[in-house]
Structure prediction request, 394 residues.
Amino acid sequence: MTTKEKILDTARILFNEQGIRSTTTRHIAASMPISPGNLHYHFRHTEDIVIALFEQLKKKYDKMMEEVQELSLTQLDDLVPVFDILYDQINNYRFLFIHFVEISSWIPEIKKDYQQLLLRREEQFKNWLDALTKQGVIVNLADKTREGIIKKLFIVGDFWISHNALYKQYTGDEARQDFVSTLRSVLSPYVNTTKAK
Amino acid sequence: MTTKEKILDTARILFNEQGIRSTTTRHIAASMPISPGNLHYHFRHTEDIVIALFEQLKKKYDKMMEEVQELSLTQLDDLVPVFDILYDQINNYRFLFIHFVEISSWIPEIKKDYQQLLLRREEQFKNWLDALTKQGVIVNLADKTREGIIKKLFIVGDFWISHNALYKQYTGDEARQDFVSTLRSVLSPYVNTTKAK
Prediction:
């Protein structure tokens, strides 16, 4: 692991545990420990660290979406491993999701980037739902229904963790199961039950 | 309107427009205008204002839920006026929803209160979905399905506004319609289509 990677990992954990307001570059340097000067050589501002972490997450998302496109799905439960990976990513970068609106006002670059990411993602999800229909996993979807499913997948995917922080505060396996079953339940009404098995 | 009510209204609008971090009791007093001393006579800390606004919203929610229980619903679209009222409430207090996790860490009283509110709400929603089934509006729901619907209603209800702020940034009627149709789409797969009309 390079110093840069170590800084990002330390920052991610501190942001997750202590929030984005009370974590400064000084705290990050102190908890590694490296000198503030060394940290500033790699990242000048806290914003630069947040942007680099957002980029990390984006790459992981893109990789996951590529893998999903290649999966051959025969039933809804074949998606559970994908939701599992998604859960790990969201949980590892939870500060981003919990403070998403705040971060996007603070760092306009992230806002713009995330909008473009969601636009791309929306197209990918459309193709992916169409493939699930063709494979007989889910029923034919009207355009508006498909749009609604994608919107719910986005909202549940991005904000389940905030809902959980406010309400049940599940941790560990309970949290993972709740996340997976909530996402699954967005699709389950559309399972093609007439499919020959 | 009493001074206290005017303070709350001014604070709510400033919180919505400028966020919770950059809005101080000093700003609120200045934009009314009243003296800081007068404001402090009514509310000692920003926290006290946030708590009072949360209480306002809670009362409005409770009133709305009572009205919903009394509605005689014959089809899913009879719920649209309820979602409309909900939209107005969420939009009027959007700072609470956008910064919900942050506020709940900052003010533990709100966290505890909101958990109890959701517990109560979960029971109300269960009864309400059962009533919709009895009235033939939606099909019979397995316990787990009903639980999933309620969770999705909570997540979409509380976080649609954050999702919108990050993605489409709809305003006015477009925002309202998108909110209503997304909430409606949580229930639409369960409409009882065999019902005699």
About this structure: Residues 1-44 of chain B form a domain with the Arc Repressor Mutant, subunit A fold (CATH 1.10.10.60). Chain B has a mean pLDDT of 94. Chain B has two domains: 1-44, 47-190. The radius of gyration of chain B is 19 Å.
